[in-house]
Design brief:
Elements lengths: L7 E5 L4 H12 L3 E5 L5 H8 L3 E3 L17 E5 L8 H8 L3 E4 H9 L3 E6 L4 H14 L4 E9 L4 E6 L3 E6 L13 E4 L7 H4 L2 H12 L7 E5 L7 E5 L5 E9 L2 E7 L4 E7 L4 H17 L3 H9 L9 E5 L4 E5 L4 H14 L5 E5 L4 H6 L1 H8 L4 E4 L15 H5 L6 E4 L5 H6 L5 E5 L8 H11 L1
Parallel strand pairs: 1-2, 1-4, 2-3, 4-5, 6-9, 6-10, 7-9, 10-11, 11-12, 12-13, 17-21, 18-19, 18-21, 19-20
Antiparallel strand pairs: 7-8, 13-14, 14-15, 16-17
Length: about 450
């Protein structure tokens, strides 16, 4: 299908981070946009300021009449919405064009030069770095991000339509709707086993994605993954390597070895070797696309990060409060590495909200091992998202597996009081559920008590 004859776009689940980026895109392209979401959030508030009408009840009667013509309206939905959703069923029964978010992204990017970022970890940060680099290098591009960029306060970077930068999401095999010119795979760790069942099936899906490249396309892979392509690595030999790494005033300084050249003194302000790896692959893709290394070094120095990705909320000599989206054991390990490097020999308290019963069940031992690295662990109840409870899988069950001396199950209402009982200088909130909605309140209360 083509989007030129579509005048109205209705989103079922408009508040999702990927869905809202598409909503912004269609508003910028003069389409009339509306949608449903089950919860009012900062994202839905921002969309409403753009003139998008949003309601929060699953009720066809609340949809404006202009969106009820199947000839001029496109329906976009997220797989996170249950198949029994009344509005979704209505649109399907009335023969509307009903597409997943990933399918729409595939249509938008099909006739562009597409740079896609895949991997179970690092997608959002890598995509936002790449989008920022290309924008600063004056490339005519649009970047669809899976998080809110600190540089643009948006999950959409708009600067033309010749090039597209996208996250290639493995959830529900969404990335198989894309046919990129350049693609990278940052990691292939087991995740989404509610979809894939086994780690091997997930890995096969990434291999299938790697074959989606357009003719003469370029595949970039983190060194060590079981694929062939242009390799990259931090402090190890690869086609693209970050070397001579040092820390100066809280930022990384490093050099880059390419297959043919060597470039000195790139500066990057995000903590953690995982973020340094994300920056390296974004630079490698930009160089292969045609950007000049000197321009990329200047652009990287101005990159400020993604909200909820090791985001400093408070940073004083007395107290540091960091918020991060980490919801997988490997991501928690990455946060621990970063905070240990930046704040060695400092007591750290983490507040973690597990995300999904299935993920908690599948990775319980790994979660326990990752969380046990911190001095104090405060555990919230599992955030269910799209799932029904699984018998026996609770936060108390997970807490019993954690080896930390200081650990406790708490509620959302007493997070700050529990934090204040600790002598920890570094406080971290972690999780992909609604813990992010509590961060501003936690910050205010900690500042007030200071």
């Amino acid at each position: 299908m083509t989007l030129s004859n579509i005048h109205n776009v209705y989103f079922v689940g408009i508040g999702g981070i990927g869905m809202s980026a598409l909503a912004r895109y269609f508003v910028a392209n003069n389409k009339q946009v509306a949608g449903y979401d089950k919860t009012k959030t900062a994202i839905t508030n921002d969309l409403e300021t753009l003139g998008i009408s949003i309601h929060f009840n699953d009720d066809v009667k609340q949809i404006a009449s202009c969106f009820l013509n199947p000839k001029t309206t496109l329906i976009v939905y997220t797989p996170a919405v249950p198949r029994t959703h009344n509005e979704l069923l209505y649109f399907q029964e009335k023969n509307f064009t009903v597409l997943k978010r990933s399918e729409v992204l595939g249509i938008i990017t099909k006739h562009t030069i597409c740079l896609a970022v895949a991997g179970t970890h690092g997608k959002t940060t890598t995509t936002s770095i790449l989008g920022h680099l290309l924008k600063e290098c004056a490339v005519e591009m649009t970047a669809f991000l899976g998080g809110i960029s600190e540089n643009y306060n948006s999950n959409l970077i708009l600067q033309g339509s010749k090039v597209s930068v996208v996250e290639a999401d493995e959830f529900d095999r969404s990335f198989l709707a894309l046919s990129p010119d350049y693609a990278c795979i940052t990691s292939m760790d087991a995740d989404h086993l509610d979809i894939y069942k086994t780690a091997e099936t997930l890995q096969k899906s990434f291999i299938t994605f790697s074959k989606q490249l357009k003719p003469k396309g370029k595949l970039f892979i983190k060194k060590g993954l079981p694929l062939s392509g242009i390799t990259y690595a931090v402090d190890a030999d690869a086609d693209y390597s970050a070397t001579n790494i040092r820390i100066q005033n809280g930022s990384y300084l490093f050099d880059i070895k390419t297959p043919t050249t060597y470039h000195k003194d790139f500066m990057f302000s995000l903590p953690g070797r995982h973020n340094l790896s994300n920056a390296l692959i974004a630079i490698a893709m930009a160089i292969e696309f045609g950007c000049l290394p000197n321009a990329l070094a200047k652009a990287l120095a101005s990159y400020r990060g993604v909200k909820r990705r090791f985001t400093y909320q408070i940073k004083t000599d007395e107290l540091v409060f960091i918020d991060d989206y980490a919801h997988h054991p490997e991501e928690i390990n990455a946060v621990h590495q970063a905070v240990s490097e930046m704040y060695p020999n400092t007591e750290v308290l983490v507040v973690f909200q597990p995300h999904l019963y299935s993920r908690t069940k599948d990775f319980a031992e790994q979660f326990a091992e990752s969380l046990s690295k911190f001095d104090t662990v405060l555990l919230l109840d599992i955030y269910p998202a799209r799932e029904a409870p699984i018998k026996g899988i609770t936060s108390q069950w997970l807490l019993d597996k954690i080896h930390s001396v200081n650990k406790k199950l708490i509620s959302k209402t007493n997070i700050v009081s529990e934090i204040q009982k600790s002598k920890a200088k570094v406080i971290i909130t972690l999780g992909a559920g609604d813990i992010g909605e509590l961060v501003s309140s936690i910050k205010e209360q900690l500042n007030a008590a200071d």
